């Protein structure tokens, strides 16, 4: 898909031009650039590559810990037991538990049952006027900046942005996996039929998200698979009649060992090429290059850059109609919240990446894990304390 020109068409072997939506083209390019060999996490038989990579890293870090701090078992016996015994044992147990979960998940995917929409589920769980509150939150996204002297936590807005993160879970990951398999098999010369099949699979996978987003007149497109298939992914919501964009991320799949290992792993890496300090390695490499020479060469093709390019393009379209800076909101849940906070800090630190037509507003993060060290937090705090950024707020919502 790197050969797809910028006029939204790709020349294929039967000498026809196949029209591809510009945002779908970005998404397909993203899928085609996922590192070769990353397992499709929705496959029936669990592929252990990610798990084995994790074990290799775990063993390496445990060895280095003992090598440089051989008194660790004596000084911190409880931490030693947890780090060297409990955690590895749990990782092995989870491996076998996930096999059972995947079999159950596959059986469920083959059934004809249709899951209820998020808004209907929320109604069944709450006596509050769910639709009314969501509508208020939706309408607040158009609002101009809040009072910088009194940052406002808008509960209805938080509820609506949680809803956008929730409906991302309804995408059919099995169809995305099928599309990815077809992309991997593509050759330099491709046919209209092959491209059509891939686009139809991706479009169909998003049908549940589109159906629910349409309730509020929103449109949606996936933009990045965050360097994996069947795991977290990011996309944008927008409306033709409103002045905002929402960048939202799907979180962890409760049945995915790979994603839980990503959440629980304690490796950090230098984030200064794009952010501050050191951050969680799994979160960082879902969006940015992994700092290897080969990866850095393609830094302009990483998921984070693809997201900012798409936001810049969509904001320009909206601005041409409203002639007002376009509000940009971010949301995410769990692992998705971790990715959202990294993207928020990236855009916060480099506003030019999304262009002059974008007005970065707030991020609403739900059940967000810790992502960085003190240097990362200090770098963000320095930006936040600047007067020009007084209207930008990052809200972490937890169930304490």
TrEMBL record:
Ranges that cross the membrane: 54-72, 78-101, 328-349
A Pfam family recorded for this sequence: Lipase_3
Residue intervals of the Fungal lipase-type domain: 247-399
Listed name of the protein: 15145_t:CDS:1
Biological-process GO terms, alphabetical: lipid metabolic process
Keyword Transmembrane: yes
UniProt entry tagged with the keyword Transmembrane helix: yes
Keywords tagged on the record: Membrane, Transmembrane, Transmembrane helix
